[in-house]
Design brief:
By secondary structure, the chain is mainly α. It has one domain. 78% of the residues lie in helices and 0% in strands. The longest helix has 30 residues.
Length: 257
Amino acid sequence: METIKMRNYFFMDMGVMLIRSMRHVFRSLDTIITVTIMPIAMMLLFVYVLGGAIKTGTDKYVNYLLPGILLVAIANSAGYVSYRLFLDKQRGIFERFHSMPIARSAPLWGHMLTSLVSNAISLVVIIFVAFLMGFRSSAGMLSWLAIAGILALFTLTLTWIAAIAGLAAKSVDGAGVIAYPIHFLPLISSAFVPTKSMPAGVKAFAEHQPVTPIVETIRALLYNKPVGNQIWVALAWCITIMFCAYLCAMRVYRKRL
């Protein structure tokens, strides 16, 4: 009975932390611009300016492009998670919460849940704009649920990586630097162009990094094509990286506080 009560309080504490963090997100115009508007602007640029020169073997370039744009939007949010965690640490917010009768990890989990919710809202907006641009999918309900699960897993993976940087950083610049290498992964993958068009060295990297199997899996699910082994490779990448990042982040969290 006591264990059930503790679990209930833990989820209640996480809910309070989620509401607190979401308020910060909605009050931050630069977050909304970077996470939602910038990927939409990139999609418009690639489809209407560069799309005619890119050969992907699809009738509509927006259909090919959308999975990569969704991952770019998630990658853009990672820097903000790191930044907000750094500010909470620098201002002593975590210590204040720990002086209250709440679960010690609830403030950190609040940021994780905020990343999931805010990214979900951004991705829905981006998909809606893609529909206005001509995007169409033959995916059924189960396929869309699978896509949502993969995107949520990718979000948590990047969020835990960002948490390490935010908790370990000694300056604002140090907290935000994690966003730069993360941004490169979608760009050097099959998100924008087929890997067969790349030089040998770049092609080898693109085909053996985490983003490409995730993009290919989402693309296959959107158009009811066989996902093959790509889905297992994508899940293996995400789960392994997320597990390692989670352990490191929790270790840094306990050490710093």
